[in-house]
From TrEMBL, chains A, C:
Originating organism: Candidatus Methanofastidiosum methylothiophilum
Keyword ATP-binding tagged: yes
Protein name: Putative [LysW]-aminoadipate/[LysW]-glutamate kinase
SUPFAM superfamilies: Carbamate kinase-like
An example Gene Ontology biological process: L-arginine biosynthetic process via ornithine
From TrEMBL, chains B, D:
InterPro entries to which the protein is assigned, alphabetical: LysW (IPR005906)
Protein's UniProt name: Lysine biosynthesis protein LysW
NCBIfam families, per database record: lysW
TM ranges: none
Source organism superkingdom: Archaea
Coiled coil: none
UniProt cross-references to Gene3D superfamilies, sorted A to Z: 2.20.28.160
Length: 262, 53, 262, 53
């Protein structure tokens, strides 16, 4: 079983990947988790809603997610991107089934109604933010769908115990799903893998991740953190590889990539 | 000037804004500015940080 | 088992209904099908996309659904409305699970890439229209989800055999779902039921529907047609009742309504 | 003026537009105007009508 995390772009690269996924899903159970941050910002602009990014205390850039933003993310991520991916995979012959984390409580997240951020160098408390961290995965639902031949496509909008829809980080949501199912996690990105001073590091173990962290930029830092969480909680292997080439999945499984394991 | 809810010492804060986090100069606890007029402080929530898409 | 068709509005009326549905779903299997035409037009306007309505040969008003419109419907119906209904029902204690018809081929529709319309009195052919009629329902998936305690919330965007996402009429999609499951169909609307010259008709059978048709306006005509299709294809009973009152479901099942049966 | 693809009779059409459906005055079949210059007719598809949300 493989969980594949992809971005939110619907360009040619994901069309290549869809064909590969449909092919490989004939002999290997696959779950796709997707993002959608870029398109969310674009559609927000078109709807006249200004996007505010905040920086978390340990330096991660995060979208300030008020209620209106949650609804825009429902439209862009749970709506357009999720269903366009379903369409793409159905066209490639896989019986794709799209879900947001709110559906059937696939992703349960604890919502923090106030989070600490850094703004203009000052530490601040931000309220009414619908952001959270995935705390549990409905693996019975996912397993049931896989056994019936469906290919789940999951959007990282989770639900809180109080019933609020919450924005969660796609990489970490994919890590939570992979570890709950003891599945490998493949994270597609736009570089060959984790680069240390420009050179691809092909293998990392849990102990080396903290050190690697120092050499990574924001985006890669998040992926290394997600990889660490995945492996600590039960995923056998995490692969970080390039998504924008002809056979991205084949390459990720056997070619040029960073493999992280215990 | 405002009183630290933890150790009751009086703290001076330069250009305070609601939502700012400040540290008590006496006991070092993190405090949240709840209102400006009057200036009221509360112990800042212990929230883990979070981020999303 | 009851299929409940509601509109797309997320106002107080649907909040009342959500509590009732969550309550009744404890002892009766329930599936919700929703529309979203009004909100689709609103969001299209905000996105600068002009909505073009065409009239079908037998007089039904239909949205000209080009590819860009399909993506806006994915955002508004499969995204915002579907997930806000999931949230509302999760908050009321039901384990709601939202799907579009494309997911797992819940709704398979035949897409007509050219349809006949009337425009300025002239009969015309309209191409590149992604509209269609539901031809089959994946009742195994719906039954499986119901048995595991989920409450399916279905958006009437279907998928064609070629893998295109297609706009279908919500009332007729609900009729197809109800008849495939031999379930009752409750259609919520903003009048007491079918009115003949202003007077509520509480009972109708299949033979009387054609006659009733002459007294109905556009919206009610579509609901009568959907009721006829539901009963002809296996639904025991179709109820048309008012949705904007305090206990709409209780009223629909036992109060002031139009009941249609064989 | 254009030829009916069904019965080959010549039909006259006032202010034709692409996509219009016209009936052949001879055999009565429904025809679709495919192009204006030259004026070309095809037998109109037998599509059932459809509508959505």
């Amino acid at each position: 079983m493989i969980v594949i995390k992809i971005g939110g772009s619907l360009g040619t690269e994901v069309q290549n990947l869809a064909k590969e996924i449909a092919e490989i899903s004939k002999k290997e159970k696959i779950i796709v988790v997707h993002g959608g941050s870029y398109e969310t910002t674009e559609i927000s602009k078109r709807l006249g809603k200004e996007t505010k990014f905040v920086t978390s205390v340990s330096g991660f850039r995060s979208r300030y997610t008020d209620l209106e933003t949650v609804q825009i993310m429902e439209m862009v991520m749970a709506g357009k991107i999720n269903k366009e991916l379903v369409k793409l995979l159905q066209k490639s012959g896989a019986n794709a089934l799209g879900l947001s984390g709110a559906d059937g409580k696939v992703l349960l997240a604890k919502r923090k109604d106030s989070i600490k951020i850094i703004e203009d160098g000052k530490k601040k408390i931000l309220k009414d933010d619908f952001t959270g961290k995935v705390e549990s995965v409905n693996k019975d639902l996912i397993t049931m769908l896989l056994e019936k031949g469906y290919l789940p496509i999951i959007c990282p909008l989770a639900i809180s115990p109080e019933g609020d829809i919450v924005n969660t980080d796609g990489d970490r949501a994919a890590a939570a799903i992979a570890s709950s199912l003891s599945a490998d996690l493949v994270v597609m990105t736009n570089v060959d893998g984790f680069l240390k001073e420009g050179k691809l590091v092909t293998e990392l173990n849990l102990l080396q991740i903290d050190e690697a962290y120092q050499f990574a930029d924001g985006g890669m830092k998040k992926k290394l953190l997600a990889a660490k969480e995945a492996i600590e909680q039960g995923s056998p292997r995490v692969i970080i590889a390039r998504g924008n080439l002809d056979n991205p999945l084949e390459n990720a499984l056997n070619g040029k990539r960073t493999v992280i394991s215990r | 000037m405002a009183e630290c809810p933890e150790c009751s010492c009086i703290i001076e804060i330069e250009n305070p804004e609601v939502g700012d986090i400040v540290e008590c100069s006496e006991c070092g606890i993190e405090l949240e500015i709840i209102s400006l007029d009057p200036l009221i402080l509360e112990i800042a929530p212990e929230e883990e940080e979070d981020w999303g898409e």
